[in-house]
């Protein structure tokens, strides 16, 4: 929990200084709130309540929602799936020596 308190203090400082990375950091800390389908007003109220200060504005939330798809952490690159090797089927043909085969005309 101490790490979260440190993040909150850091976020408040970033917003007070109008740092350019404040919105991205806010999204990284509270991405679950942005992923919910709350309105701007509710989202701003929740974030300001968690931060303990009125530092987040509607414009911040709008900006984050517009850009968060670019910020999402890329998952580990998937290895291409290799299909299991299929066993070749051998045709069931019985080979015989034509000289030893019975004459079909008789």
From TrEMBL:
Region annotated Disordered, chain positions: 72-106
Superkingdom to which the source organism belongs: Bacteria
Name of the protein this chain belongs to: Uncharacterized protein
